[in-house]
Amino acid sequence: xxxxxxxxxxxxxxxxxxxxxxxRPAGRYIAHxxxxxxxxxxxRLSATGDKxxxxxxxxxxxxxxxxxxxxxxREDMGWNLAAARGIEVAMRDFGKxxxxxxxxxxxxxxxxxxxxxxxxxxxxxxxLGT
Length: 130
Description:
The structure is a single chain. This protein is α+β, with helices and mostly antiparallel strands. The chain has one domain. Helix content is 25%, strand content 39%. The protein has two helices and six strands, in the order αββββαββ. The chain has helices at residues 2-18, 79-94, and strands at 28-33, 38-45, 52-61, 64-76, 101-107, 113-119. A hairpin with a 4-residue loop joins β1 and β2 (38-45). It is globular, with a radius of gyration of 15 Å.
């Protein structure tokens, strides 16, 4: 599931960037899997931390991603808010790393969630070598 999340985030980011947004999506990407495919929302926590403000959404259907933009941002107080708060706690506990990290949030039992921080690729291509 973690590999699927990572792939969804990568392909959704490419789809959003292909729309030529005025600026690179700021904040976080948060993905969740549906019966139809992945949905990846791009946004940030509100100043008060009580909403996740979605500025772009990439929805997978038949392997392709369709992008919607929101101006003003769409307010989310469900999964995205819980995931964004979980990411903030995990990153605060993890501390400042010496390299970039990717973040993924997956559902756990009893309405819980797992937050993963894992090293991001820093070189282009498949052969990362030494």
